Amino acid sequence: MPTRIIFENNSSGKLGEILEKENKKNVLVVTDKGVLNAGLLNAMFQSFDNSNISYGIFDEVEPNPKSSTIRKGVQKLSE
Asked: Structure pTM?
């Protein structure tokens, strides 16, 4: 998928609709526990649900991720 930058209010809340138009059906969200627990991704998750986009969450990213963290993320992607 080519890089596309969308800069507007509630753009993360429109991501499901955008992916649906691109015929994308599965997403892996890569984040850390702080962002996830703060609810900063809730609008995005709701947009996925509204567009029937399946998603997985990998929330084990730490600052300056180690190679082992990247391997865990790749493993999650292949599930």
From this structure: 0.83
